[in-house]
Amino acid sequence: MSLNKLNKVLTADVDALTESGRAKGAEKVITKVVEPCDGKGPRYLLEGQGGKEFIRMNSNSYLGLSLRKDMIDAEERGAAEFGVGPGAVRFINGTFKAHIELEKRLAAFHGREAGMIFSSAYVTSIGVIFPLTTKETVLISDELNHNCIINAMRLGRPAGKEIYAHNNMADLEKALERTVGKAKRALVITDGIFSMRGDNAPLDEFVAICEKYNDKFEEGVITIADDSHGVGSFGNTGRGTEEYTNAKVDILVGTLGKAFGVNGGYVVSSNEVVNYLRESAPTYIYSNPITVSETEAAIKALDILESEEGAEILAHLRAMTRKFDSSLREAGYETIEGDHPVVPLMVRDSKKTSDIVKYLNENGILATGLNFPVVPKGDEEIRFQINASHTEKDIDYVLDVMRNYK
């Protein structure tokens, strides 16, 4: 076979990743969801683990919506009426009414003129940054931005690139100063919530600094935030890092696949920006949209979030996050303090991180250990993620397990 030689090379590469501790390894296979009972949230059964139940402390479904009956009913109605797939990309097959409704709802939710949905948040960032990058554009990025932003920047051929120290606004300003006169346009890009740490970008300072330099670029300084971990779960009403910092960027990327519990990504901005992206974003033009059924479920998620029940869900999420974070610190563990439901336990050692993850699994807790190169050396951690389906009993159990760790 022609693959024989390549197979050997690829196997050696994977072996090297495994030996260095950088391999992701085999994925756990979930075989069943056990419904909440006796004061406990949902539990999960895994392949090869018999009837042992696990609590998930590594899910992005921050509002706990994906298992709700009303969400499932909404998705099933969409599938029953329009089928299980969209059939083709939107410019070939046309679009569905639900897609248009969701885009309008997302734009209104974030106080923007227009919205546009993609098949995932990852391809949304690529589909926004790449087509807005010209030969007369400079790209300026936080050093800890998500991989999707890094790859979007690699795809373009800008006039220049600058990386500023994480959340260091003085360093950001220096980067802007260095690029004045080198390009017509500057795209300044940050995560809203940095997913490995749970800390947020200071968007109020970020926007103010960029506005200072706007007139020094012929086509302006354009602020972009990917707030995929923030929208739905952060801020008093779930409108993300913008709400938390009382600031608004020019272009906001979000996801439907985390707090909203569904699938897909989106961007909201001005009519002009969105119209341009519909004509130029390759990951939109040449990729199927999310299904109608997913779209209906996303609309239902917005209905829930914007209701009185949504406010109660957010209040519970904040309370469980505060309880978990403060109790870990009281038990002598190091965390990165913050209000977001990502609570990183800073271990700062690869072997110990792996040992703790194994201990947690033995006690029926699913948590994710993050080692280099996913995080910098010395920042090895276990990323706990709180969601609104966690009960006090759940949080107390995990805390007791951590207190008993030797």
Describe the protein in words:
This protein is 42% helix and 17% strand. The radius of gyration is 22 Å and the shape is globular. By secondary structure, it is of the alpha/beta class. The relative contact order is 0.16. It has 2 domains: 127 residues, Aspartate Aminotransferase, domain 1, CATH 3.90.1150; 237 residues, Type I PLP-dependent aspartate aminotransferase-like (Major domain) (Aspartate Aminotransferase, domain 2).
Summarize the helices and strands and which ones pair or pack.
Elements: H1 4-19, E1 30-34, E2 43-46, E3 53-56, H2 69-82, H3 90-93, H4 97-109, E4 114-118, H5 121-132, E5 137-142, H6 147-155, E6 160-164, H7 169-179, E7 185-191, H8 203-212, E8 221-226, H9 241-245, E9 251-255, E10 265-269, H10 271-280, H11 282-285, H12 292-305, H13 308-330, E11 342-346, H14 350-362, E12 365-366, E13 368-370, E14 381-385, H15 392-403
Parallel strand pairs: 3-12, 5-6, 5-7, 7-8, 8-9
Antiparallel strand pairs: 1-2, 2-3, 4-10, 9-10, 11-14, 13-14
Helix pairs in contact: 2-12, 4-12, 5-6, 7-8, 13-15
CATH architecture of the largest domain: 3-Layer(aba) Sandwich
The CATH topology name of the largest domain reads Aspartate Aminotransferase, domain 2
What is the 3D form? globular
User: Whole-Å distance between the termini?
Assistant: 51 Å
CATH superfamily of the largest domain: Type I PLP-dependent aspartate aminotransferase-like (Major domain)
Lateral strand order in the biggest sheet: 4-10-9-8-7-5-6
Bin the helical content: 40-55%
The low-pLDDT segments are none
What is the CATH C level class of the largest domain, in words?
Alpha Beta
User: What value does the Rg take, in angstroms?
Assistant: 22 Å
As a percent range, the share of strand residues is 15-25%
Order of helices and strands: HEEEHHHEHEHEHEHEHEEHHHHEHEEEH
Instruction: Summarize the biggest pleated sheet.
Output: 7 strands, mixed
State mean pLDDT (0 to 100 scale). Answer: 95
Structural class: alpha/beta
Number of DSSP E strands:
14
